[in-house]
Amino acid sequence: QVQLVESGGQVVQPGRSLRLSCAGSGMILRGLHMNWVRQAPGKGLEWLALISFDGDIQHYADSVTGRFTISRDNSKDTVYLQVNSLTTEDTATYYCTTSTFDKWGRGTLVIVSS
Amino acid sequence: AIQVTQSPSSLSASIGDRVAITCRASRNIGTDLAWFQQKSGKAPELLISASSRLQSGVPSRFSGSGSGTQFTLTIDSLQPEDYATYYCLLNYIEPFTFGQGTRLEI
Fold first, then answer.
1. Smallest CA–CA distance from B100 into chain A, residue
2. pLDDT, tens digit, for every residue of B58-75?
3. What is the dihedral angle through the alpha carbons of A85, A87, A92, A95, rounded to the nearest 10 degrees?
4. Helix (H, G, I), strand (E, B) or coil at B82
5. 3-state secondary structure of B81
6. How far is the C-alpha of A21 from the C-alpha of A47, rounded, in Å?
């Protein structure tokens, strides 16, 4: 079954950092632009970032610019989201999705709590 | 960033009804708008891309229309499995923007 698999979510204290990962299962990510999207509990979807297929171009939502970094390692066929200086408002399920938004992972849950 | 207004925020309808959800963009985005369905605890699923392009496997009772700044998702003859939350996405230029969501309930 072709799917995306996110990992790296956990409970962390405010101010800490995390690196989230997205890998393909039955699909190859290199050659695809990729996005990260998040959803806080009971809230709507928020687009966060996009990275080009080769990693040369990144775009970010205004709300996370300077604090989140999207990257990729095509040798590992994995896309990452580095999230720094976490606050309780970053508590959410983080999804990776293809550039056309037609494939999504199940998400990884980040809980920021002291 | 381009702003989006999705309405209504919630909608009550019955099996067999026809419903419409709209998204309005703050500037002309051509047809660069997608619609998603999300059920509780699940990832969103893409229904329609490029304003009106129905994705493979999506029932034909779903349709999308619009261009420029005004877009509509229409669901004909509501089925029980259609009760969910729907989002539009403006993907004209980064940063992309999701609508606020429409919760469709009985």
1. A44
2. 999 999 999 999 999 999
3. -20
4. helix
5. helix
6. 16
